[in-house]
Queue: 2 jobs
Job 1
Amino acid sequence: MFSGAEAGPAAAASGDAAAAGTKLIDLTDKLDKSGCYARNEDTRFPWTNLSIGDTRLGCKSDADEQLILHFAFQESVKVHSIKLTEFNNGIEPENNPTRILLFVNRDNLGFEDVEDVDPTTVIELTSDDLKENADNTLLKFVQYQRVNSITMFVEDNNGGDITALGALKFFGKTVATTNMADFKKQG
């Protein structure tokens, strides 16, 4: 199991991506917003707020603490780490997520499906892991090499009736692919 406290920024900078000679980038601009969705989100605090940069807006669950967030990318990416930030500087610590399951390249997962599918990664979080100045949560880079989508299932929180998340960013790099539209017909 992973926790954001397992590695510092030096480990992120000298990880697999640095060894490959490429710089990690914020993959937020690579999201295909038309393919992203949330289940059990409070419509006043939708998933789209997670990339705005204002943790007072953020995303909240609606009926209970569980929340599914699905992020589709415009192209295949390699994901190195994620950065989860608490809602509104932690004024409601009971609503912080504590257990998150990540699923790679699984589309249309619902609450009835998540128990039947093995997660790619299980992340256990503390309040310190969600601070703005906390290190990114490192992922097993080998499991995140050709990512078209990530589904995040917030399974549990710190005891609140709902879950709240202030911001979310994915860090990694794009996968070099061939665009067949660039080729011209011969003959």
Note: The first strand starts at residue 25 and ends at 26.
Job 2
Amino acid sequence: MLSQKGGAGKSTLTMQLAGGLARRGKRVVIIDLDPQETALRWAHAAAAGVPFPATVSRLPGEPDALPAAIKAAGRDADVILLDCPPSIEHAATLASLQVADVALVPVVPSPADLWSTMGVERLILQVQASRKGLKAALVPNRVLRTNLAWDVLEVMRDFTLPVLGAALSQRNAFAQSAVVGGTVYQLGRAGSEAAREVDKLVVEVLKLTGDKT
């Protein structure tokens, strides 16, 4: 997950996607590359006896250690998620694009977020020019049911990168799951609508990776 500005929901997307993949039997490892360590703090907030459904760790060392960290994590994981810093100039973001199979860009449907997404897209397209195997997509996140949001979602389709066929709405359940150190799947009926959205996200991401399981 990468973005150019904070507040796009990068860590939320990472943690919920991890929960959805885990429910499908995937062994998931998250490497938290963001200096704010949101993913780590989120997982550490889990109640005793109810661990977060994925292993969350920070990168041991500098960004150039990322390939080795991924190789090591891959021994015990089916999927490795990288939660990047909110900056396309950060060394960890650039390192991630050199090793990732898929780059997901959460986009809040607002004019300011669209402007910042242009820079992210340019960077990804530059990397794709030399790394033909890198796939990428925009993911609508924190979507409100307003006319402005729908207009922005339409504008998103003018980007070169495809828009993923799933979106996460602005729901209290996503914030609440962070408070309890889990995912929306743990919230019962209060998280049921959010869980359905995450299920759709998981399906779309697996399609993007070519995983048909």
Note: The helical segments are 10-23, 38-44, 66-73, 91-99, 111-130, 147-156, 172-179, 192-209.
